[in-house]
Design a protein that fits this description.
Blueprint (H helix, E strand, L loop, with lengths): L1 H23 L6 H40 L6 H39 L2 H7 L4 H40 L3 H10 L3 H27 L6 H30 L3
Length: 250
């Protein structure tokens, strides 16, 4: 019985994903709602991503400096920090923050609409609730996550520079020349592509959990919690797979 339930769940997820792509590529498009959700995604996560990325840059720099100093390789610090931030730290921090912030919001929002029968009312009225509620949010998280990751990388490197400057009085131009010399286009593009998959996973999982919520009002909290936990798990899985794939081209 459990195997049958699992297979049915997999079929529902497959149909849900298929429906997203079909409605995302067929008109009419919900441009106004997509822009609204893009603004909401960026606005909800901007401050938290900035603050966390800045602290991550500062902390990682301070933790790495003693180890490099013991080998007389402190001049490698900009290279080490930039590669760590661009390749993994920036996308991972941004993805986890968005999974916690956006996943809970989207899951709870759609679950509450499901419980209060607002989605059923939209279907009866002839609108396209799936396109309006689900597709717009998935598109918004997919588009905004790479932008947030690029911004987080810049803020993290700025935090690292301020730390190095306060210790060694390193100049701005010297520091970022070292950064740019050790970052390749593969690092940048792989980070952006990985962030795109992060955004799609967060939007897809959160919308699926919320849109298919059950158990009445208790399902709202359950949907929010499930969306966060599964989204974070998939972010780590995608990060691991992308690392293995990118290493094939290094």
């Amino acid at each position: 019985m459990k195997l049958k339930e699992f297979l049915l769940k997999c079929e529902n997820i497959y149909r849900f994903i298929q429906n997203i792509f079909r409605q995302a590529l067929s008109p009419p498009f919900e441009w106004r709602e997509i822009l609204k959700q893009c603004y909401a995604v960026g606005n909800r996560s901007f401050f938290l991503v900035s603050f966390t990325a800045f602290l991550a840059g500062v902390v990682f720099t301070r933790q790495s400096r003693p180890s490099l100093s013991s080998f007389g390789a402190e001049s490698w610090l900009p290279s080490l920090v930039s590669q760590a931030v661009i390749r993994s730290l920036g996308p991972l921090i941004t993805g986890l923050i968005c999974a916690g912030k956006l996943g809970s919001n989207i899951g709870a929002e759609l679950a509450s609409m499901k419980v209060t029968e607002q989605i059923d009312a939209m279907e009866v009225s002839g609108t396209r609730p799936f396109s309006y509620l689900v597709v717009s949010r998935v598109v918004a998280t997919t588009l905004m996550m790479p932008i947030l990751v690029v911004f987080a990388d810049i803020v993290a490197l700025l935090g690292s520079y301020l730390t190095v400057h306060s210790i060694n009085n390193t100049g701005f131009e010297l520091y970022f020349n070292d950064v740019s010399a050790n970052i390749t286009y593969l690092d940048i593009f792989s980070s952006i592509i990985k962030a795109t998959f992060f955004g799609f996973a967060v939007g897809l999982i959160s919308c699926y959990v919320g849109y298919n919520s059950q158990d009445g009002t208790t399902g709202v909290g359950k949907a929010a919690n499930t969306a966060v936990v599964i989204s974070m798990s998939f972010i780590f899985i995608i990060d691991l797979l992308s690392l293995q794939f990118t290493n094939l081209f290094r």
